[in-house]
Design brief:
There is one protein chain. With about 325 residues, the chain is of the alpha/beta class. It has one domain: P-loop containing nucleotide triphosphate hydrolases (Rossmann fold, 3-Layer(aba) Sandwich). The chain is about 50% helix and about 15% strand. Helix 6 packs across helix 8, helix 7 packs parallel to helix 9 and helix 10 packs antiparallel against helix 11. It is elongated and about 75 Å long.
Amino acid sequence: MQSLLNRKLVFITGKGGVGKTTMAAAVGMMAARAGLRTVVVEVGEQSRLTDLYGIPRPEPGVETGLEAGLSSVSIDPDQALLEWLQALGGRISGRVLASSGTFQYFAAAAPGAKELVSMVKIWQLTKGDGRRRSTGHDLVVVDAPATGHALGMLRSPQTFGAIARVGPIAGQTQHVRDLLEDRERTAYLAVALATDMAVTEALELEDGLQSQLSRGLDAVLVNGVLPRRFTPAELERIAVFDGHAGRPSADGDVAAAAARAARTIHDRAQFQHNQVARLRRRSFEVLSVPFVWGARLDLEAVQGIADRLERRMES
């Protein structure tokens, strides 16, 4: 994990609903604590990090400070493409362009255009002057869409580059491609739950990165992992209590229910650790993030995850 802080871009994706935004926020917090000026980029019409901090949602494209050294910004791909076409169209207003058929036609006819202009905006955020740490960003953390769409974003320089071979957009396309392929500047993280489908998708992401960019995952963050609490001897003792099921004693019924609950949790934890073992058989680093017991994941809980990542870096 230490090498992450030596990059310019950390790209985070995974199956939908696995906690990508939580992990992106935690990585951003960890980097800011290390003294890096860090921005977390959310792709799409969302701004969940400002919600986490209790800050009013800004307009897409407006960078918002969250805490010392940490900010966030959201990129709306449709708006990014509209702004790019408006720049090409000179004085044509965004409202007129958006209401015309030109925008819809171009968006449909140019494969990878929205994804590419989003990636160009991300690349621009990484361009801080390395000689003056007070300007620009030291680290850009991308809270990317789910795996399939994220791979589409990463593939966009090749997809759109086949169309735009000359001009400014061609140059920007090459800059983005160079950044994504550079092992010194870019890291790729997958987030997964310890389930069969989520782990399989993380492994498929690894394969997709290899085929598209000749890159692999730098690490997988496995979210919501339960601890293994019981030894085989303890499980045998628990099984004895389960034998009270069906007896008239109320205490026996309670003991049997508790024993069954303990066994269920143990079996679930064992299954999760088997899924983690699938990931560990690959060459990337795997970090388990414990399940957070609570009604919701608040700022304090995310800060706790950042603490764990920080300790892992120091070990």
